[in-house]
Amino acid sequence: MFAHALTDDAELRPLSPWHAEEFLANLDRCRDHISPWVGASFVATDAESARKVLQAYADRWARDDGGIWGIWQRGTLVGGVLFVSLSTDRGVCEAGCWLEPGAEGQGLVTSAARFVIDWAVRERGIHRVEWVTKAGNERSVAVARRLGMSRDGVMRGAAPTPDGRADLEVWSVLAPEWTA
Asked: How far apart are the C-alpha atoms of 174 and 58, rounded to whole Å?
């Protein structure tokens, strides 16, 4: 399998169901940090649910409608990037990420997202890459900006939360902007 160097001590690699224990350990280190921002179904709580999350993305990859990759730093899984959705028919995908606090501030997510977005645009013909985040997720918005995305708008009350509903910000970049 491929490994793409992100820094001298970090790389991007496919994240597969057989990585469930590593994925769970990563989630355990960042659970409180990412829980406000990601869907509850993503934040696995045991080895079986971790395997199911990764299997769902493996199935998406096999169907050509999504995918997930891990960021390993000094041999430890610290986060990753994913395509929540990918439709070559429509030419649209949605990218996302997660990262544990100890790995923040090093450009790992931006570099990893740039790599998979570039692949989607150049190799798969994706025209529009979306980045959707709950309003108030300043770190995620900062990544979208660093990726050259434009803020399309806010979908008010679009995300259910334990406390009610949350607004979602939609950011995007189009293929001609990406390749310019």
From this structure: 26
Task: Please state whether beta strands 150-161 and 128-134 pair in parallel, antiparallel, or not at all (unpaired).
Answer: unpaired
d(CA 166, CA 177): 29
Three-state secondary-structure class, residue 49: helix
Which residues are bridge partners to 80 per DSSP? 70, 98
Helices (H), 8-46: 20-34
In degrees rounded to 5, what are phi and psi of residue 159?
Answer: -115, 125
DSSP string for residues in 81-149: EEEEEEETTTTEEEEEEEE-GGGTTSSHHHHHHHHHHHHHHHHH---EEEEEEETT-HHHHHHHHHTT-
Q: Are 162 and 134 in contact (CB under 8 A)?
A: no
**Averaged pLDDT for residues 50-68:** 96
- Model confidence pLDDT, tens digit, residues 18-52: 999 999 999 999 998 888 888 777 789 999 999 99
DSSP symbol at 43:
S
Q: How many CB atoms lie within 10 A of CB 99?
A: 24
* CA–CA distance, 166 with 145 (Å, rounded to integer): 21
Three-state secondary structure call for residue 17: helix
